[in-house]
Amino acid sequence: MTQVTENLASGTVSDPDMTVVLARDLTKRFDDMVAVAGISFIVSRGECVGLLGPNGAGKTTTMRMLMGLSHVSAGTLELFGEPVATLRRDHASRIGLVPQDDNLDPDITVQQNLELYGHYFGVAAHTRAARVPELLEFMQLEERAEARVNELSGGMKRRLVIARSLIADPELVVLDEPTTGLDPQARVLIWKQLLELKRQGRTLLLTTHYMDEAQRLCDRIIIVDAGEILAEGAPQTLIDQYVLGHVFEVPKPLPDTWDHEAFDHEDIGDAVLIYVEQVADFVDRIPAATHYLHRQANLEDVFLRLTGRALREN
Amino acid sequence: MSRYTLAVVYRHYLVWRSLMWSSLASNVVNPVLFLFAFGFGLGAFVKSIDGMEYLSFIVPGMAAYAAMFAASFETTIGAYSRYAMQRTWDAILATPVSLPELLFGEVLFAALKGLFSACWVVIVGAAWGGVESLTGALLAIVLVFVASVGFAAYGLLATSMARGYEFFSYFFTFWLTPMFVFSGVFFDVGRFPDAVQWFAWILPMTHLIEVARPLMVGLPIEWDTAVLHIGYGIALTALAFWLALRNMRKRMFD
């Protein structure tokens, strides 16, 4: 966050031809609450950016504003160098959205769903005729082309929603929790195809609750909570910055002779987490016979450390 | 009309086609049953009314009612399901289709359903000898379509205010049912006491039937009053659509 905000503040905004999304002090207020509290970020062409945050952090609201589905209360939000309020039709024709809830048409077939979306985008008939089979193949749905959507499994529906978002060959694909609730096989296929989209030069903006997914797909991660950006950077940079390299979990009661305060640590109730760069930094300084758990630090550690461990229930 | 609105109408047509039989039951069989019940049942006692054969009298009323019911249902229960349950509106608005185009597509398709339903009543009524003027019937059908755009818009206005399906029981009780009983489907509005007549003339369906009936029965039309009836319906339609759009924009985007 710091880097981008500084850049924005000093006016050294990156090349407008390369900037797909630019948010500056973006704010969304509902009657009785602030959903997005003045966030600033940039998404550049060809990048995959992950917007992570607990439920209610403001991720979906940010995406809805981007799609023109929710009005901006204050601040700036630009797409392809134009404010979102203007040229909505032009913006919409260049973005594909994969919403959190499947809003497919359940009573018509898989193929009809794709064709219909082509109509909404004003895609020419011959282009539709060529693209629909391509997309069915891309998401491995060829066999189910004639099936009604309400006969599909959850994983197939999700794949169809992704295929549908690509019908107008979008430059930017916005994915709101693309693999939530899917089995590992379906997730692997979706990841593979999302990486393929990135390889084709498309820009991806996604939210997810799966840190492995974010780590695998995203060039850059933005962690938001309570409508504010807490941290931003490449996955490995965030890990190095916030949780060093290794995590040791030492259950309570802690050894008497050992001073955990000397480490970068976090009290999580029935245990203490110690963050160190090198394994030796910890192992050499813990009394022998102390019981502990060790793992390589990952994005999940960053996320929990920044957003806290209390349950979010709204 | 934009191709984006047509895309919405096309979507509704595709879904309608895949669920056609249940739709035909409520929009064709239902009004035709009413027509038979009243035509045969009541028609056996009431041979003529205001100098018209009772069957000829009731066919235009039933056609208007069929259109009103089909169009209203489509933009209330149907549209609300697409908006709040299936989230079809969200899916459509994530594309270049705008909210006015989407809502206009809803209204247009609902009006086409109203037209379709009314046509069946007129066809069955004509086959049964209850349509005196075919030219008049064709003109009346055009008016039914225009009025159906209105019926659809009033329903959409209700949808824009609904927080759940329960809300529509008010719409049916205080809007649909009064039109069914007070708008002159079964007997002339002039037979009501003055206060009730006042109320009846607020209802847009009263104005539709007032013009459609003499057309179908083949009676002379006073065009200067007909224009007032039609103008009232169109003005009310525009107002309802504008309010529905305003409510929906606030509700979806703010």
Helix-strand makeup class of chain B: mainly alpha
Q: Radius of gyration of chain B over alpha carbons?
A: 18 Å
| Oligomeric state | heterodimer
Low-confidence stretches of chain B: none
> How helix-rich are the residues of chain B, as a percent range?
over 70%
Shape descriptor of chain B reads globular
- Which two chains form the greatest contact, residue counts included? A-B, 29 and 25 residues
- Average pLDDT of chain A, rounded to a whole number, is 88
Describe this structure in words.
The complex is a heterodimer of chains A (314) and B (254). Chain A has 11 helices and 14 strands. In chain A, the strands form 3 sheets. Chain A has a 6-stranded mixed sheet, with helices on both faces. Chain A has a 4-stranded antiparallel sheet with strand order 2-1-4-5. In chain A, α4 crosses α5. By secondary structure, chain B is mostly helical.
Please describe the topology of this protein.
The complex is a heterodimer of chains A (314) and B (254).
Chain A: H1 2-10, E1 19-30, E2 33-44, E3 48-52, H2 59-66, E4 74-79, E5 82-83, H3 88-92, E6 95-98, H4 110-120, H5 125-138, H6 154-165, E7 172-176, H7 184-199, E8 203-207, H8 211-217, E9 220-225, E10 228-233, H9 235-243, E11 246-251, E12 264-267, E13 271-276, H10 279-283, E14 293-296, H11 299-307
Parallel strand pairs in A: 3-8, 3-9, 6-7, 7-8
Antiparallel strand pairs in A: 1-2, 1-4, 4-5, 9-10, 11-13, 11-14, 12-13
Chain B: H1 3-18, H2 20-41, E1 48-49, E2 52-53, H3 54-85, H4 88-93, H5 99-127, H6 134-161, H7 167-182, H8 194-202, H9 204-217, H10 223-253
Antiparallel strand pairs in B: 1-2
Helix pairs in contact in B: 1-5, 2-3, 2-5, 3-5, 3-6, 3-7, 3-9, 5-6, 5-10, 6-9, 6-10, 9-10
